[in-house]
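Example (one chain per record):
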Amino acid sequence: MKYQKIMARALPVEVTQGTLEGDIKPGDITFFRLQSTADGHLYSYVADGEVLPVATHSFGSIGVFAIHEMKRFYRHVLVENGFPHHGAVAFGHHGKALFEVFKYLGAEKVGYNQPKGVPYPTENPFED
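Predicted structure:
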């Protein structure tokens, strides 16, 4: 554990203590987000993927994440639904459980990464 380098530029180092340092261990992950709009609507997404065994040569707790069919998922779930680019990560494949939790909590939409060959509702079927 160290201090948060970016925050320590403007704050005393002792305020920024507690940052984990190093590359995240390769393995299965689930990328997800649950958010509310100003008028109380819940939206979410969930996608299984993995942390790749890539040395980052950077600072902080960092890893290279791969989400199956990410290009399509990013365009047709994240961008089209106005999600910010930040999400949460659970270690392991927990998409099935998170999908059910989000539905139970009342999420009106639960986006997920469609397998190759299964189009999103707004996807052009003639794209490569």
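Caption: Strands lie at 2-3, 17-19, 22-23, 27-36, 42-52, 61-62, 64-67, 88-91, 109-112.
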